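Feature request, filed as a ticket because there's no other form

It would be nice if the structure record came with a short human-readable summary line next to the tokens. Right now we just get the raw output. Example of a typical job, pasted below so the devs can see what we mean:
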Amino acid sequence: MPTTLVDSLVMMSGAPPDSVGIPGFGGLSELTFASGLPGFPDVRLCEIVSLGEELLPFARLRSTTHPGVAFTVVAPGLLFPDYSVEVDEEHQIALGISRPDDAVTIVMVTVPRPPGRPSVNLLGPIVANRHTGVAAQVVQHRSTYAVAEALPS
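Raw output as currently delivered:
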């Protein structure tokens, strides 16, 4: 994954190297959110579940403690090759990220009722430590990304 260190920000772009499991997820199977999942403060532990081979590279991020709380997710670099994320020093410390390749970036997918087109939240990606699964939403304050960016055709 190409990286640059700039003003205590880690710049990450593209998809992390594939590993066993869902492409772009760095082999992660669980995420732990210290402050809860965005919008769901009580949801702290989630599992990443395959939606099946026919729906790759998409997966499901599902709460292990709150039945019914689940989201479709994807590694954004697989769909948006030029996508990059800035991780500030505070998040680097909280997530235990010391090198850019320690991180995995995941975005939530919104699938509207037909005939709506699916979109992804590129403005507020989830960044996780690929070794520990510790994760947080890292809002991209200085970007032009959208909360609802249409999926490429």
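Something like this underneath would help us a lot:
Residues 15 and 113 are 28 Å apart (CA to CA).
Residues 3-150 form a domain with the BH3618-like fold (CATH 2.30.290.10).
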